[in-house]
């Protein structure tokens, strides 16, 4: 049975679900920062997924990245799987702008997180829903 790592649960908001992955919003309003978490137990590396799941994760990552670029007008989408602090496989998708607080450096450890308001979370979800309309389920049950 899949269980979201406690650190991911504490630092993010579950907003939806693809066929394989949960979609989270990192609770830092300085960056539209989304995280895909494949719903597989005891997986810390992409190569540990079977071939079908690896392909599905790549598809979900591409769908999400393209949607984020369109919905948020990103200058760049940073995609990364670090896992140094949280061993559960998760893929960060961070919308970057030339004017964001960390540009051009990586966002990790640059500034303390600024939590979203409920209204800001709703706005992020609405923006994403305008362009990412298939292959995902959104809903209150995921928050």
TrEMBL record:
PROSITE patterns from the UniProt entry: HIT_2 (PS51084)
Keyword annotations: Hydrolase
Domain of life: Bacteria
GO molecular function, one term: hydrolase activity
Keyword Hydrolase: yes
Keyword Secreted: no
Domain HIT as annotated: residue spans: 1-103
Pfam family, one: HIT
Gene3D superfamilies tied to this protein: HIT-like (3.30.428.10)
InterPro entries from the UniProt entry: HIT-like, HIT-like_sf, HIT_Hint
Name assigned to this protein: Diadenosine tetraphosphate (Ap4A) hydrolase
Species, as recorded: Halopseudomonas formosensis
